[in-house]
Amino acid sequence: MAFRTSLDMEDDCLNMSPLGLEAQDKLGTVCIFGTGDFGRSLGLRLLQAGYLVVYGSRNPENSSLLPKGAKVLSHKEAAEYSQVIFLAVHREHYDFLSDISNQVEGKVLVDISNNLKKNQYSESNAEYLSKLMPNANVVKGFNTVSAWALQSGNLDGSRQVSVCGNDYKSKRIVMEIAQHLGLIALDYGSLRAANELESYPLQLFPLWRLPLCIATCLTAAFFCYCVIRDVVYAYATEGKDVSFRILISLANQVFPVVSLIMLALCYLPGVIAAFLQLYNGTKYKRFPEWLDKWMLCRKQLGLVALGFAFLHVLYSLIIPVRYYVRHKQNSYLAKQIKNNETIIFQKFYAWRNDSYLSAGILGFGFYLLLGITSLPSVSNAVNWREFRFVQSKLGYVTLLLCTLHTFLYGWDMFCHAHNYRWFLPPTYMFSLIVPCIVLILKVILVIPCVDTAVMRIRQGFERHAEKTPYAKKASIRGTLAL
């Protein structure tokens, strides 16, 4: 029975060989070399999808753990039953393939192996396998899917399968098998991309490391600063123990500061890049490596900043129910009653408080919009102009609102000497440094003459570019005409 794919209409397509008459309603036969966790999970999914599965093993008699319905044979015997062979063994165990080179000639050999560490070998496993078996069509694929994802029916784990290989038809067959298993297959190009595919499973949040490192350092630094300025200062000067403020009050001072700084750090590399392009007069000169890495992790910086902003909102919501706050309010109210005092309502403070809260609510709303738009499912549903409008234009509006929220919170606090404990400024002032720098630089960039120069450079204009031969010739003709 032939393997049913869209390639069946072609005369030279690759067909799957049957195991017997019982395979008439099946998609075809697939061979798997390797009876480990991944081999067993893959075989189970293939059986559930309607394929016939035959395993090639060094010890065919040890088959108690294999899925019911699969057959187990020796490597040589199993290779004769199918046109597609999944190689679910480590690179160190490729030696047995030399004995079955005739059986795998012209067949699709799918390498799903991964290494224990990056750059473990000078060449990828798939390229090494291609040299080892030059008569087989080697395809790299399924190495980014875990055995657990296959067992759970794609309810958990990655569903994306990247496939690369030098033979287009072989890749198509492997991609259609992936689609029959309910996976998303992507063509990753030739076998030269195998090294990148094999490195992918070894990565552990590569773009999150710098943002998380920055967030951790900022949080630790500002937390220690707040402890010294509030807790240690109160105990040293007044003998008061206010250490209970660490859990809520000090944390709620640190979170907004870190959030606003990291939000500004999302947009600072773009501003720096624009000024570098203006300075170089071209867009074709590479940015420094540190700026490249910084720009690549801007999305992660923004999401971490959103997380800190969300914590700030939650901590602020519980302020009225805190024992410390309720005790302080009741004591102040009792003092007014005892002294028969009345606090006069002042519209100025009402406007300031409402403006401070309104800027914070609007800023957090736009914050959420930026976070939602960064989700792949949402970003894929909008075009580039819409995405750029949200992430760039509304992003700067968000930064402006959050900075305004901080300014209204501090107001004239910096003018009073008693707020500088041990000559240390209030914590909120540190959060305004980077955002103000970014906003000022952005204002410079939106000046019409500067903005026009940046746009020309990004459209390909080069200030110091040499004239082309045609341009030089035209210049000479113009001079002679004069």
Describe the structure in your own words.
The protein starts with 27 loop residues before the first strand and ends with a helix. Helices cover 52% and strands 8% of the residues. It has 482 residues and is α/β, with parallel strands linked by helices. The protein has helices spanning 37-49, 75-79, 125-132, 147-151, 168-180, 194-199, 209-238, 249-280, 289-296, 298-317, 323-339, 347-373, 376-379, 384-410, 433-445, 448-458, 469-481, and strands at 28-33, 51-56, 71-73, 84-87, 108-111, 137-140, 160-165, 184-187. It has an eight-stranded mixed beta sheet, with helices on both faces. Strand 7 (160-165), helix 5 (168-180) and strand 8 (184-187) form a beta-alpha-beta unit. The longest helix has 32 residues, at 249-280.
How is this structure best summarized?
Residues 1-25 and 467-482 have low confidence and may be disordered.
The description of the largest β-sheet is: 8 strands, mixed
Measured by DSSP, the beta-strand proportion falls in 5-15%
How many alpha or pi helices?
Answer: 17
Order of strands in the sheet with the most strands? Answer: 3-2-1-4-5-6-7-8
Q: Work out the helicity level.
A: 40-55%
Shape: elongated
| Alpha-beta classification | alpha/beta
Alpha-carbon distance between the two ends: 82 Å
